[in-house]
Amino acid sequence: MSEGKNVLVVDDEKKILEVVSSYLESKAHKVYTADTGNEALDIFNRETIEFVILDLMLPDLSGEEVCTKIRKCSRVPILMLTAKTLEEDMLEGLHMGADDYMIKPFSLKELYARMEAILRRTAESPIPLAARFLWNEGDLSIDFEKVEVKKNGEPISLTPKEWKILSALVKYPQKVFTRDDLLGVAFDVSYEGNDRVIDTHIKNLRKKIEDDPQKPVYVKTVHGLGYRFGGEKQ
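^ Stage 0 sporulation protein A homolog, sequence as received from the core. Prediction below:
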């Protein structure tokens, strides 16, 4: 369990605000609530917020707009809530800088488990807040604002799970991620399948971003432990 945090919960459904707030407060977190995007930003600018739970569908500013404004000045962890299930919509949330997303309806236990997983990942210092990074003289580039990955200047298509895995590795380049860590990054907390599914996603990711998938320079294997990110950032 993480120590108590200042959590901002943003949703235009009063019932969700009440239920989520009550649950998080029972876990020793201090909760601030907002039912509009402008109110959320006012609270964020006024208080020391350490975690944000943000619904995409708000009556004034959209959740995407709120997330974008927060990301211009802070790396505070953001968990997005969405009723959308299309792959493009999920990528859009990550595109805006969210650390993860959950699809409505959701259980409070799963919400809290995802929150804890994000807090564990973000406990380490991430790379400086920036939109775009280049590695190995531009051989690989990642644009977090556009959710775009290019290999030798050519865009490559990643699945949402591949993007989430690559983003986590890139943001914490010194961290060795176990398969369980990456399951938490890419899958629902309730996923009970074999952790070797991560190896399949890593294999597919390497095919897309490595010159030689058998001798990877970006997604490195740490034998007996897991995976970490390599490459020389420009």
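The chain has two domains: 6-121, 132-229.
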